[in-house]
Amino acid sequence: MPTRPSQSAVVLRDFVNTLEPQTGTESLTTPDALRDWFRAHGLVATDAAFVASDLDVLRAIREGVRQVLLGHAGHEVDPAVVAELDRALARVPVRLSLGDGSPRLRAVEHAALDDAVAGLVEAIRSAGEDGSWPRLKVCARDTCRWAFYDESRNQARRWCSMAGCGNHVKMQRAYAARRGDRG
């Protein structure tokens, strides 16, 4: 198992983190923002053109992946969100390609949305193959839910940052325990 994130794991972590749940900051706000993000991560051609409806599909995939990563961290997963993920993924047929010498999943059609989804599916497949997929997790702090890569030896990390979220959660638990002891 790798202790450093693979390139595929980095892409998936960064994709989930295009929405910052704590502040509500959304990076994927327009078709051009989609193009820029997916192009920067090498998942679509430079001339890719997204449309407004692609935003909903890719956000559904992102939130579905966030739910799966919540499961990796041992949290309860919302089955409706995962079902929506499955529906969104099923909209884009992929095929196996050996064109560059190694097995890779590619979109059957070459629309921007299809290439983006196929790139994400390929990243998940690759992360699963290299062992980094189960190390991708979502922060245990309810208000955070930031995706992170668990580099710990025993894969038991629960927070995106021990200094931030981990400390906050532990302080809340300690305060609640002290309050409970008083009465």
How would you characterize this protein structure?
- The protein is mainly alpha-helical and 183 residues long.
- It has six helices and six strands; from the N terminus they run αββαααββαββα.
- The strands form three sheets. It has a two-stranded antiparallel ribbon with strand order 1-2.
- α1 crosses α5 and α3 (52-72) packs across α4.
- The radius of gyration is 18 Å and the shape is globular.
- 33% of the residues are buried.
SSE topology:
Layout lengths: L6 H10 L2 E2 L4 E2 L4 H10 L11 H21 L6 H12 L3 E4 L6 E4 L4 H19 L5 E3 L8 E3 L12 H21 L1
Antiparallel strand pairs: 1-2, 3-4, 5-6
Helix pairs in contact: 1-5, 3-4
Calculate the mean pLDDT score and round it: 87
Shape summary: globular
**What oligomerization state is this entry in?**
single chain
Unreliable stretches, pLDDT < 50, 5 or more residues? Answer: none
Question: Element order, helices and strands?
Answer: HEEHHHEEHEEH
**Pairing-aware structural class of the strands and helices?**
mainly alpha
Tally the helices: 6
Question: How do you describe this structure in short?
Answer:
The protein is mainly alpha-helical and 183 residues long.
